[in-house]
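Try this one yourself first.
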């Protein structure tokens, strides 16, 4: 009985601490609530411009373009004020993602022709790097850091998609524990998309003749691992 009472007291204090931490994060770090989806990302409304020396600015966050980036591909259309729409997923080709932010494949525009995205990458913060290349467009830079020109022109393209390796185990589209189930909520080992461990937890005794089952046992055990998520 003493063990049970101690565990209850510890659990109560842990949950209070987690709640206070979550509130603090929201209050002092607004960026924590910005991400729409780390698995099906859209383009940031501010950081959305790439630069071509031959055709000027290309907007990847143009209204109506509906650009999305997933673990598999980049879809939608970018906009050039000079040469019109550039389709990222044309019927005969497309821009592909290997799940870690390494892009390949080709986009197509009626006035730009083919544009090769090999060499364009997306980092763990969602920022694009590198260059795409086309016969008409020339080199397209996705980030002023490519040429150390940010002091003169601070442009970049950013998405809320994140590489698999930068996402928690319960939100990385991988079967980390080998049970044939992927991520939250499909994998019973996941308590949320922020859970860093897919391993299923089995109910069991905690001493004193008492037993914890279900969600309370999950919270207690995962708290003791130090991975209780908000």
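Now uncover the answer:
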């Amino acid at each position: 009985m003493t063990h049970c009472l101690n565990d209850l007291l510890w659990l109560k204090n842990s949950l209070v601490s987690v709640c206070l931490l979550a509130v603090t994060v929201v209050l002092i770090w607004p960026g924590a609530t910005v991400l729409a989806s780390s698995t099906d990302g859209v383009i940031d409304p501010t950081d959305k411009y790439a630069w071509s020396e031959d055709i000027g600015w290309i907007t990847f966050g143009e209204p109506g373009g509906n650009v999305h980036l997933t673990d598999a591909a980049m879809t939608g259309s970018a906009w050039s004020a000079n040469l019109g729409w550039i389709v990222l997923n044309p019927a005969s080709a497309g821009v592909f993602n290997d799940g870690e932010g390494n892009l390949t494949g080709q986009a197509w525009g009626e006035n730009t022709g083919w544009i090769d995205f090999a060499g364009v990458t997306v980092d763990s913060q969602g920022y694009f790097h590198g260059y795409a290349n086309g016969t008409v467009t020339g080199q397209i830079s996705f980030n002023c850091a490519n040429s150390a020109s940010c002091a003169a022109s601070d442009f970049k393209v950013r998405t809320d998609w994140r590489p698999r390796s930068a996402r928690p185990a319960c939100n990385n589209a991988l079967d980390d524990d080998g049970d044939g189930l992927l991520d939250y909520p499909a994998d019973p080992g996941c308590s949320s998309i922020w859970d860093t461990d897919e391993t299923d937890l089995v109910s069991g005794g905690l001493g004193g003749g008492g037993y914890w089952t279900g969600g309370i046992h999950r919270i207690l055990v995962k708290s003791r691992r130090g991975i209780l998520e908000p």
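Discussion: DSSP finds two helices and 16 strands in the chain. The two ends are 30 Å apart (CA to CA).
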